[in-house]
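Milestone 3.1: sequence recovery, worked example.
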């Protein structure tokens, strides 16, 4: 939820925020285009990195960068920090598409990845709808984006902490229940997947936590 709330909220209002701060629209649009373009690079870069480090670490790094970008928002439009924000924001929001399937496949195997990933993507609807609306309401109500940016920062920081805590416990059955996967069937599948991972690298991410 928090990812799409932040991502689409900023996607809709980044150019408006920069122009509100006095930046020419052409320059603001260029920053926006750079953020989107960085997404193409980030998927390749983080994909290569994720192949070389544990998938849990890759996921935490991505969400930590996402949280960092939302903290940088609080100091914009500082001329030095704006390019840093564009770099971190553009990289982290697109890289999520890489690490999600990797860690779900690592923990559950291909058999249940689609159902569980689909359940997680359902968060797009409420988060993606409310993010832009909330951001617009804050701007119209208070005349600035300050409260919206503060909300983004708090939500993203809490998400990193919650994600770290979740990856330290046995979360597969909880996620499977949300996805409507039969518990007994999942247990059987996890046993097979654990044996495979134990043979390959000795650990099955949070499945062995």
């Amino acid at each position: 939820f928090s990812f799409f709330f932040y991502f689409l909220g900023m996607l809709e209002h980044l150019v408006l925020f920069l122009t509100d701060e006095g930046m020419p629209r052409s320059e603001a649009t260029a920053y926006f285009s750079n953020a989107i373009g960085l997404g193409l690079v980030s998927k390749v870069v983080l994909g290569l990195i994720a192949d070389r480090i544990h998938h849990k670490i890759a996921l935490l790094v991505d969400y930590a960068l996402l949280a960092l970008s939302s903290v940088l928002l609080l100091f914009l439009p500082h001329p030095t920090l704006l390019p840093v924000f564009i770099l971190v924001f553009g990289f982290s929001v697109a890289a999520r598409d890489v690490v999600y399937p990797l860690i779900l496949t690592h923990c559950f195997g291909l058999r249940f990845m689609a159902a569980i990933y689909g359940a997680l993507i359902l968060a797009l609807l409420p988060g993606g709808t409310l993010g832009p609306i909330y951001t617009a309401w804050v701007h119209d109500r208070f005349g600035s984006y300050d409260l919206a940016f503060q909300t983004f920062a708090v939500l993203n920081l809490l998400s990193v902490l919650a994600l770290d805590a979740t990856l330290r416990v046995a979360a597969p059955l909880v996620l499977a229940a949300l996805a409507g996967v039969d518990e007994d069937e999942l247990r059987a599948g996890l046993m097979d997947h654990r044996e495979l991972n134990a043979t390959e690298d000795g650990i099955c991410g949070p499945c062995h936590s």
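DSSP finds nine helices and no strands in the chain. The mean pLDDT is 77.
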